[in-house]
Design a protein that fits this description.
The chain has two domains: 98 residues, no CATH class; 94 residues, Sandwich (Immunoglobulin-like). It is 0% helix and 48% strand. It has a four-stranded antiparallel sheet, with no helix packed on it. A hairpin with a 4-residue loop joins strand 11 and strand 12. The N terminus is likely disordered.
Length: 211
Amino acid sequence: MLLSVLLLLLLVSDSQSTHFRGTMVTYYPMETNSDGSISTCTLSFRATSRSNEGWYAVQMVMEDFPRQSISLTHTNGSKEVKTTNTPISMIPIQFAFLVDGNALSCTDGVYLPKFVFPTPEHGARFYSPVNQTLEIKIRAEANQSRIDGVLYSGPYNVVKGSSGSGNFTLKWTPSASEGGQSHPICFIVQASSSYGSEAEDLDYAATERQE
């Protein structure tokens, strides 16, 4: 399948929150795998001056198209023809990001938080039996900033905890319905100066409990 991404980038003004300035673009990946899937898809934004600082709201719609006309049969028995110009599915995604001022130093551990032990390494893969609580210990340091928060994405039932500046925990108890599946958990830590760390991405596989 061929994939396109419709991207709407909006700059939200604090003083005029009901007014937006935005750009709509359509992005088609230049390279696809032999089966039509996409291994890498990167959308980038470069701030060139202080006038670019502020919060940006991003709305994306991912669409996939057949390489040739196909006929789909729905559960009610009806049929539908999809051409190469008709998307098979549309998946909306919305998120926001902040373009902040330059840090006085880009060295990790000075103003920008730096992960230290016992934080798991980026890309690590773990296995956890269902109905057993898994605890992820996160610790970060920054000499010139106070670390006061952690942002994460993952399963809906992840519980966040804190035990002082720069020390956090994420706890997750996979249910039986989540057994046999892989669940990514990603997180960053944030300093009071609004500086953030690099993202850590982990992969946890919920396994059936061994008797």
